[in-house]
Design brief:
By secondary structure, the chain is mainly α. The chain has 6 helices and no strands.
Length: 217
């Protein structure tokens, strides 16, 4: 019985890692869309569909583990944390796709704005990558560092929003484009929030202690 549970838990870990990697690929596609102006929409939609499928598959595996194996203690935390993490990963995939869908509308924005967005995209992408790595390595220090780094992405968003509002007030003709750019910045901020949620669930899995309330973005 224990060997069967361990093999299913190993499969769960493998599936979570693959789902996290897909989310990272989608974030990379999102800022490639912004940087190159190329159309990655079909590829992004295909990956988002795969993320949704993986969420359903992993949820099914978790329910089997809970109902048939009746895990206790740390094993139970592993399964319950995985259920929470896949929800955040699914939202990360949705948000990355949202960026790709409107990237073409902001291709003519100024270079400084592009630099801000690129910085946010890379920071949010690193948070997602690190949150998956923290899970793989069961790394409490890395998980805490991810939670701390969320403030940096939030600060970038606040600065970006203030800057773009000023641009809109001075350049009315481009107002719609810069409103779309604010939305893109917000999507990356929310990706950072979801990566933080994942890190919090990693900490719960490792320590058995819940970090103060997760974010719902």
């Amino acid at each position: 019985m224990r060997n069967r549970f361990d093999s299913q838990l190993e499969l769960l870990n493998k599936e979570l890692i693959e789902m996290g990697a897909l989310c990272e690929e989608m974030i990379e596609l999102s800022y490639k869309s912004l940087d190159t102006g190329k159309d990655f929409l079909e590829s992004a939609r295909a990956k988002e569909t795969e993320v949704d499928r993986m969420e359903s598959d992993i949820e099914g595996l978790c329910m089997k583990l809970l109902l048939k194996q009746q895990p206790v203690a740390k094993d139970l935390r592993a399964v319950s944390s995985a259920l929470r993490m896949i929800s955040d990963m699914e939202r990360i995939g949705d948000l990355a796709l949202d960026v790709v869908e409107i990237a073409d509308y902001v291709k003519d924005c100024d270079e400084e704005s592009k630099h801000f967005i690129e910085s946010m995209a890379h920071a949010a992408g690193k948070m997602v990558s690190d949150s998956v790595e923290a899970y793989v390595r069961k790394d409490e220090v890395l998980a805490k560092a991810i939670i701390d780094s969320d403030d940096e992405v939030d600060d970038w968003f606040d600065e970006m929003k203030a800057r773009l509002i000023e641009i809109i007030s001075n350049r009315g003709d481009d107002g719609e484009m810069y409103i779309d750019l604010i939305m893109i910045a917000k999507y990356y901020e929310r990706i950072g929030d979801h990566a933080t949620n994942i890190a919090e669930w990693v900490l719960y899995y490792i320590t058995g202690k819940k970090v103060s309330g997760g974010r719902d973005s």
